[in-house]
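testing teh design pipeline on a random one, pls ignore if ur not involved
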């Protein structure tokens, strides 16, 4: 058995202790309250016996548990069928660290990256794209969508400094992209594109390799910058280091070479474009068949028993102690 969204099951870690604590608290308060009455008064005031009360609490706990399992959508069995590729889901990881202001790409690096992205969006049709900017942290700017007008608007506002925390959290961005692409249909190709000029010293190549292979992700990198480097112009001044020297930002070619050799990435070399790479990729995968496992949904089972348990709980709410009023 597997679950469509197993993370929903983790919600039980939150609500289960809360429910148990509430039940214990209510029991203590009930017992304290009943001490003020004698047996005859208690029989008149209390319509729910202790056994019924315990049963009701067990039922509500069972109802919540079954509904949680149903919401996670359990799946079993199924069969493998041959299906053709239906398109590409692309997660674009865009560097917005200050070094992208360096002007060694016939202008600022980030401007060239944005131009290539706009070119890609103009050439797509029916494929989905997600935008993940990163610097010292990474976040999802726009989830997978085929709304190209919105995508172009988002790309147009990408700019170095939009994330206050500086650095190169490429690993975090790749993990976020991987999580995004996990939701892609099995009939879609998955592609991760990195547009950057730098490296992440803390990047766990082994972990990233496992992620890419497990999710069958095609990785492409677009290195920006030159080995000679260029000063980083921020506004009307140049970025300085602690010694008040002008910072010269250079591309780390060794890092990108390692991405190619270890992660199996395809490097978009100078003179080539992202749109031409994606176009060629789509041609090579067009009509390609793959085996897709189709699972059978089983959420109806826990949902059915959960509704029965709730119905029994509802009936018990009207049941009086002893079944009748005593005169």
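output:
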């Amino acid at each position: 058995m597997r679950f469509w969204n197993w993370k929903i099951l983790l919600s039980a870690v939150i609500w289960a202790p809360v429910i148990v604590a509430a039940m214990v608290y209510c029991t203590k308060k009930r017992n304290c309250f009943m001490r003020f009455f004698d047996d005859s008064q208690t029989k008149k005031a209390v319509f729910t016996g202790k056994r019924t009360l315990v049963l009701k609490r067990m039922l509500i706990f069972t109802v919540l548990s079954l509904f949680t399992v149903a919401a996670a959508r359990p799946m079993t069995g199924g069969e493998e069928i041959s299906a053709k590729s239906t398109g590409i889901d692309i997660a674009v990881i865009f560097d917005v660290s200050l070094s992208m202001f360096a002007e060694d790409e016939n202008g600022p690096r980030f401007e060239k990256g944005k131009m290539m992205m706009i070119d890609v969006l103009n050439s797509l049709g029916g494929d989905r794209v997600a935008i993940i900017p990163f610097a010292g942290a990474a976040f999802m700017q726009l989830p997978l969508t085929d709304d190209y007008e919105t995508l172009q608007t988002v790309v147009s506002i990408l700019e170095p400094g939009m994330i206050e925390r500086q650095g190169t959290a490429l690993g975090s961005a790749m993990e976020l992209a991987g999580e995004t692409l996990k939701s892609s249909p099995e009939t879609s190709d998955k592609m991760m594109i990195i547009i950057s000029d730098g490296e992440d010293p803390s990047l766990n190549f082994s972990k990233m390799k496992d992620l890419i292979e497990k999710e069958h992700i095609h990785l492409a990198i677009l290195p920006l910058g030159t080995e000679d480097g260029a000063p980083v112009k921020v506004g009307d001044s140049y970025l300085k280091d602690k010694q008040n020297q002008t910072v010269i930002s250079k591309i780390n070619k060794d890092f990108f070479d390692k991405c190619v050799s270890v992660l199996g990435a395809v490097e978009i070399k100078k003179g080539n474009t992202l749109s031409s790479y994606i176009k060629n990729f789509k041609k090579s995968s067009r009509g390609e068949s793959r085996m897709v496992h189709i699972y059978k949904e089983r959420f109806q089972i826990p949902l059915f028993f959960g509704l029965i348990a709730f119905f029994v709980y509802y009936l018990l709410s009207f049941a009086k102690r002893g079944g009748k009023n005593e005169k």
